[in-house]
Amino acid sequence: MHNFSVEHVLSILKTNIKGLSQKEAKERLKIYGLNEIEEKEESKLKIFLRQFTSPFIIILMVAGLLAIFFGDLKDGLVVYGLLLINGFIGFYQEIKALASVKALKSLTLPTVRVLRDGKEVEINIKELVPGDIVLLFEGDVVPADIRLIESVGLMVDEAILTGESIPVEKNAGVILNQDAPVHERINILFKGTTIVRGKAIGVVFAIGENTELGKIAKRMQEKPPESPLTKALGDFGKKWIFALILILTFLVIIGILQGREAKSLVFFAIAQLISAVPEGLPIVVTIALVVGAIRLSKEKVLVKHLPAVETLGSATYICSDKTGTITVGKLRVEDYVPYDKEKLYLAAALCNDAEIYDGKEKGDPLEISLLYWLEKEGVDWNYLRNKYEKIWEHPFDTKLRLMAVVVKSDVGIELYIKGALESLSTMCESACPEEVFKNHDKLAEEGLRVLAFGYAKLDKVPESIKDVKINLVGLVGFLDPPKEGVKESVEMAKNAGIRVIMITGDNLLTAKAIAKMVGIFSDGNIAIEGKDLEKYSDEELYRYLKNITVVARATPEDKYRIVKVLQSNKEIVAVTGDGVNDVPALRVADLGVAMGSGSQAAKDAAKMIITDNNLSIIVNAVKSGRLITKNISKVIRYLLSTNLFELTYNSLAILMGLPLPLYATQILWINLVTDGVQDKAYPFTKYEGDPMKEKPKRPEKAFTGKEQFINIAYNGLIMGLSHFFLFKYLLNIYSYEVALTISFISAVISQWSVGIQEIGEKPFFKNPIEYIKLNPYIYLGIFIGAILQIIAISLIPHYFHAVKLTMSELPYIFIIPFITFIMIELRKWISYLKSAK
């Protein structure tokens, strides 16, 4: 409707300036429905069932069922109990997220003034229909998308929709091009925006989901992506489980062909499967994420979705909002050029409707910043307002882009005026000096919004502002300044391999200037306007995004597209935002981070909320994320190393025709006294070195990458092969019962050795004391496990096919644990010396 005249719009909507009749309004309400944004709710049952679809969960369900089938009711019930608890936690988190769309409803006032049958009436905003004539005043929230019919000094805060930090001037009289972007549609009022100044009459042309706000709400219904952590563990789970089933099926077939008892082989396979599936991993990951979330809460970061904690550590891009995140979100006078300082102060105080009383602010943010500037300059603006009596005013004029007042003073009648230099320069008594334009351009190039101020001595009150001739008294430049610590944080992010892109609704000059101040934009970088993104295909855009650091005049669709393009190229994207305009990008980002002072819709769409709106908080939180990534990677390496050991050990014995070196009950017990008490301590491990000097690692590489699997294979095969040869030797000198008991105890201690070695990446003997300090809880876990193992061997050995060992037999239980510890230490020294070079 922005490209049609008012008369044409009224004709299209079949209405008139007196408004609809009550009868017609009721008919239209039946046709168009309520002015609200509907939400599509997924059934709670479907949400609950979805919690049990990951590969790990499915294999545990199968393993639990088989355990019950073979009479191991206790293990089966424990497995299902843990699964249910995990499911209910996930279910609760998703139910909370359903508030996203509902939050948009709270953005508008419950009632609105309209003309019905030519009379002014107040109705519920839900009952607004296309064609309604709406009356709006200062402080009102716009209830629908409206084409302006009349406007007087109208200024609208559209930050929630466009990200523009400065109120926008609106003008009913203009007709725009059809392709004018949202932020340029100055003859339109958008649902959810706020009237800062002036008044207006307009006609409703879009309601509910057909508004710009409604279109954004539809994007909120798009399913957010799985976290990188969830994806990586899911992919790994499928591959690991497939390999396990294949190997164990093969071993059972070989065993049956060798004449072994089928029942004992199947029971062994189930025990091995339960042991080899790291069922403790989801619990350990949850503990790691909870510990990270608690740490982050102390740094003013509230975590809504636990996997988001790890996502921070993996992020390769941060797409940041400007206003309120990088900048203070509040205008201040940054610089000024006085030609008559006294008159400039008077103009700033008198040609100003803002007020500040008892710390409370009222009025245009730009005018409020003028009052703070005057106070800083030592000017009592309140005194000046009382001294100079206002006798005439020309309210802010969106066409002329100026405001003026006439006051009585000791010298007579004086006029003070402020506005755009283009407007005031045409009112000068003589030609505006070239120096003024140079000063104006210099301020503008610094990213400042520039206002000119003028003065005139009058004989009488003017009939029209156009009759007045003035003298310029000064220029003032306004800036929404960067927050403290942001520049250092941007530098830290760069060193950590994270690219920062500032995406804002502000103009290009301002955005570029701010980006330069905080180090986001530098030589070689590109600053671009949102409308120019359309020129590039997704492939071309991704190439450009490697150098683009500023996107100005960005729409919600632009931000959304940037996120999707980066994700399609396997980048992990964190997005910050506070307005409804940020919701689509927050929703689809790998990590949506909302500002605590932002809209409820943004907070509901995000996975993380920052109570102190500051980019530096996010960058600092990356440290916690990277520590969590490291600790999860370590626990995966530990668990899979010990699982591979058991699998290798038993497989070799079966293939070589030897008796089983570990019974099914022993395998389950080993799982309890090693993994069961040790892995839960890994989330409390401290970081070695500086996490912000490392490049981000994709979760799949950190958790299940080539280097990870080489280390797992090394650990597992060292233990598996050495135990096999020891077991084979023991069978020649001792009875099977003694060899089995030594094998059983040695396996437990060997896994403790691996547990200690995998705490840190640096060698143990480089600095043993510092190494032990990395995580004292690991040793507590080993102590508990040792007590349990001693009780099992001493008091109930027959339950574990074990016998009491003599003093001559005991040394054998320490040979392989020692070899394992030394061989892993050797591997770590090689890796350490290699990286040091």
Automatic annotation (TrEMBL):
Keyword Mitochondrion: no
Cited PROSITE patterns: ATPASE_E1_E2
Top-rank taxon, per record: Bacteria
Keywords attached to this entry: ATP-binding, Hydrolase, Magnesium, Membrane, Nucleotide-binding, Phosphoprotein, Translocase, Transmembrane, Transmembrane helix
E.C. code: 3.6.3.-
Family annotation (SUPFAM superfamilies): Calcium ATPase, transduction domain A (SSF81653), Calcium ATPase, transmembrane domain M (SSF81665), HAD-like (SSF56784)
Cellular localisation: Endomembrane system
Listed transmembrane segments: 52-71, 77-95, 240-259, 265-294, 709-727, 777-800, 812-830
Membrane topology reported for the UniProt record: Multi-pass membrane protein
GO cellular component: endomembrane system; membrane
Domain Cation-transporting P-type ATPase N-terminal: 2-72
InterPro entries: ATPase_P-typ_cation-transptr_C (IPR006068), ATPase_P-typ_cation-transptr_N (IPR004014), ATPase_P-typ_cyto_dom_N (IPR023299), ATPase_P-typ_P_site (IPR018303), ATPase_P-typ_TM_dom_sf (IPR023298), ATPase_P-typ_transduc_dom_A_sf (IPR008250), ATPase_P-type_domA (IPR059000), HAD-like_sf (IPR036412)
Name of the top EC class for this enzyme: hydrolase
Name this polypeptide is given: Cation-transporting ATPase Pma1
Lineage: Bacteria, Pseudomonadati, Aquificota, Aquificia, Aquificales
